[in-house]
Amino acid sequence: MKTHVIVVLDKSSSMQSCFNATLNDYNELVSMCQDRSKEKDHQITCSLVTFNHDVTEHFWQSPVEDLKPATEQDYVCSGCTALNDAVGWAYSKALEGIVPNMEEKDAILIHILTDGMENSSKKFMGQDGIADFTSSADEKEKEKEKVESIKKYLKKNNN
Question: Which domains does the chain have, with CATH numbers?
Fold first, then answer.
C-alpha cells in the first residue's frame, strides 16, 4: 500500500499569529507519517508545497524517511495568500503524476495548513475558486483527457 501525503502550507504574513502552532502541526505530521511508514507493506511519500503570493514546491514524492523536522528558520511568513493557486497546483500535479500510477489500495492525502482566506491567486480564481480549475479550451481538453485516463484505469482494475 502506498500513501502520498501532500502538505500545502500557508506562509503568508497572517500566519505569523499562529507560527508556533503551524510549525508544530507540520512537524507532528512528518513524525506521524514516519511512524506509519514503519508498518509492514506501507510505503509513504511526502510532498511539500508552500504559498504566500507565490506557490513553491520544496519536494515532491520524497520518501518520508528522508524528511527532517522544520525549524523556525525554514518557515518564514510574508506576503499575501494565494490559497486557491496552491491547492489547485497540488491537485493538478497529483492528477498528472500520482493518480495514473496508483493501485486500488493506494491513497492521496492533501493536508492544508492555513489560517484563512484567499486573497491573491492568479490562476485558480473566479467565483468558484479552485472549482473553476480551467480557464481556456486547451486546459479544459487536457482535464477531460485526464478524467478519461482515470476512468480507463479504474475500469481496468475493477474487473
Answer: 2-158 (3.40.50)
